[in-house]
Amino acid sequence: MATATATATATATATAVVNEPAAAEVVAVGRSKRNRIQVSTNKKPLFFYVNLAKRYMQQHNEIELSALGMAIGTVVTVAEILKNNGLATEKKIQTSTVGTKDEAKGRLVRKAKIEILLGKTENFNHLVSTNKVVREAPEAEE
């Protein structure tokens, strides 16, 4: 029960919401959690989250990917893409259940939650800068 309250409080103190504010699509939470990406199932493309994670990793040495319920698969996929491309290493995975209030039925609903902490690899900056050069080269030729 305390976890649900802490989660609700953290979400309520969000500092930035990207795109649809009512949907709380992506939220950078609190002062100590500016490196957290919360993923939802609101039909954002998978690579939206991959590219967002890359941008966050350029600013921070580690990022935390977080999701509830049906969005867990998306978070795991994003983490695996970053790891397989040599951009991130897995530092910690934490699973739990949280209680959220169902507005329609007015009762407590338990949902699975996952938090994946990823750190930059040693060659992150080199890989990202090389990727930018490769992408910019075709534009220069046109």
Please state the CA-atom Rg, rounded to the nearest Å.
17 Å
End-to-end span in angstroms? 58 Å
The pLDDT mean sits at: 75
What sort of overall outline do the alpha carbons produce when their principal axes are compared? elongated
The largest sheet, given as strand count, sense and whether it forms a barrel, is:
4 strands, mixed
Instruction: Provide the structure class.
Output: alpha+beta
Please work out how many helical segments DSSP would assign.
4
Q: Tell me the number of strands.
A: 6
In short:
With 142 residues, the chain is an alpha+beta fold. 39% of the residues lie in helices and 35% in strands. The longest helix is centred in the last third of the chain and has 18 residues, at 124-141.
Topology of this protein?
Elements: H1 2-12, E1 14-18, E2 26-29, E3 36-39, H2 46-59, E4 62-68, H3 72-84, E5 88-102, E6 107-120, H4 124-141
Parallel strand pairs: 3-4
Antiparallel strand pairs: 1-2, 4-6, 5-6
Helix pairs in contact: 2-3
Pfam families: Alba
InterPro entries: Alba-like_dom_sf, DNA/RNA-bd_Alba-like, UCP030333_Alba
GO molecular function, one term: RNA binding
Describe this structure in words.
The chain has 142 residues and is of the alpha+beta class. 39% of the residues lie in helices and 35% in strands. The strands form two sheets. It has a four-stranded mixed β-sheet, sandwiched between helices. It has a two-stranded antiparallel sheet with strand order 1-2. The protein starts with a helix and ends with a helix. The model is unreliable at 1-32 (pLDDT under 50).
